[in-house]
Structure prediction request, 184 residues.
Amino acid sequence: MKTICVIASPRKEGNCKQITDMIIDKIDHNHENTTELHFIDDMNIKPCQGCMGCRNPENPQPCIIDDDFRKIMDQFTNEEADLLIFAAPNYFGEINAQGHIFMDRFYSMTQKTSNYLKNNPKCVVVFTYGASDGYYDEYINSRSHLFESIGFDVRGIISAGRGKPTSGDDEDLISKIDEVVNKI
Ligand SMILES: Cc1cc2nc3c(=O)[nH]c(=O)nc-3n(C[C@H](O)[C@H](O)[C@H](O)COP(=O)(O)O)c2cc1C
Prediction:
């Protein structure tokens, strides 16, 4: 199984990265796995330009911006990759800016375009924040529908509050990760 991890936090050893590592460690026990790990901050990913080229019904196109977003997503289109782990931190109540730039590009891959992921690859969404556990569940559940809107099969959402796991308060987190990994 090939897993691609996309981390929206710029913090190289932050909560998003640590939770992603915990998931990958557990997957490695269950599957023969190769992993690619990317920080959006280090990649060449431009914001959606709203050109509507992907929505032209007479001549549907892939996104005109041929950058690292396409390099990641082409691997799901070509069935080279099987699982996306997307991990983002909460900045002022929402996914941070890097995560938004990545997700806005999903517009070029919805069912109204030619780029919808027909093979339904798997996906896990991770959201970390400082507020109490569950505080942002409604928000992250709703954002996670966007992954489904481009054809991903969302197998689990890990909503981790209280600055976990850096805060050390990670007992519930470990059982949540086990639960999600069993669904992959
Ligand atoms: C600019 C900024 C804004 C933040 N806003 C919130 C917030 O509104 N609510 C919250 O619960 N946590 C907030 N946080 C805390 C982060 O979401 C939290 O520390 C998260 O786990 C960071 O993930 P990381 O270590 O992977 O970067 C904020 C952090 C930063 C840097």
User: Anything to note?
Assistant: The CA atoms of residues 45 and 68 lie 6 Å apart. The chain has five helices and six strands.
